[in-house]
Design brief:
The protein is α/β, with parallel strands linked by helices. The protein is 22% helix and 27% strand. The chain has a single domain, classed as Rossmann fold (3-Layer(aba) Sandwich). It has a nine-stranded mixed β-sheet with strand order 3-4-5-2-1-6-7-9-8. Helix 4 crosses helix 5. The structure holds S-adenosylmethionine (SAM). The site of S-adenosylmethionine has 24 residues, from loops.
């Protein structure tokens, strides 16, 4: 299945084959659970391929990211409602409903550190997630920990429903370990654009095929085997 032409407005020719593959694959899922995008900045254009219920986290200049998202959606779709609840970076969130072609979306944007997921309670994530999306997640705010640090990464991977997906660029599922041991299967790889670092490494799409109880332990062993300090 192909997306409406409006989805392609911000997509480069080089990334089109991968984004179409991702859209086709993820549309088979038909889940009510949200897509969690950790370190999103204002990158709404890739997230719309992944699902209709989007939850973004970015703690670096979140108001600017929200403005960028509003501008992009105004160009390719119609904003139906928007509301700022509280203050970003202080536990608040921005909520927006919008339509692109005939498709309705719901976005929740938190200006929080994404590594608090699974520790702090976020109502949208309470029942799990359908997709975990991470793309070039370099921290920009002081004191922000790495999304890829095993303990944080394990909590996020556990949230993905069985049958759901992990989509990443420069946030590898494993360094040395066989990904099957983590309960995932590789579906596709290809070019996908990221803010600051346009090309470089490819994006990878993985499907979660089973829950792995000791995933944090396996991720720690893999992290150490790859030469990182714990
Ligand atoms: C290089 S930008 C990439 C932005 C976007 N993912 C893209 O592909 O265009 C990295 C973003 O990740 C965010 N980030 C990194 N670690 C984070 C964390 N722990 N919590 C929230 N945001 C984080 C940064 O604030 C920054 O906006």
């Amino acid at each position: 299945m192909d997306p409406p032409s409006e989805f392609l407005e911000f997509i480069y020719d080089e990334e089109l084959p991968f984004m179409l593959k991702v859209y086709d694959e993820l549309n088979k899922l038909n889940s009510d659970l949200p897509v969690l995008y950790a370190g999103s900045a204002g990158d709404i254009e890739h997230a719309i391929f992944l699902g209709k219920n989007l939850v973004f986290f970015d703690n670096h200049l979140p108001e600017e990211s929200v403005r960028e998202i509003i501008n992009k959606i105004s160009r390719i779709g119609k904003i139906e409602s928007k509301e700022m609840m509280g203050e970003l970076k202080k536990g608040g969130k921005f909520i927006m409903k919008f339509k692109i072609a005939d498709q309705s979306f719901h976005l929740t944007f938190y200006g929080e550190d994404a590594t608090t997921v699974g520790i702090t309670s976020y109502p949208e994530l309470e029942n799990g997630i359908s997709v975990y999306f991470v793309k070039v997640p370099y921290p920009r705010e002081g004191n922000t920990q790495s999304i890829r640090y095993p303990a944080h990464f394990a909590r996020a991977l556990k949230l993905i429903e069985v049958g759901g997906y992990y989509l990443e660029k420069e946030c590898p599922l494993a360094f040395k370990l066989d990904i099957e041991k983590l309960g995932f299967r590789k579906i596709a790889e290809g070019e996908i654009y990221a803010l600051s670092i346009k090309w470089g490494e490819k994006g990878n799409l993985y499907k979660k095929v089973r829950d792995v109880a000791d995933i944090e332990k396996l991720l720690i062993e893999d992290y150490i085997a790859a030469g990182f300090d714990m």
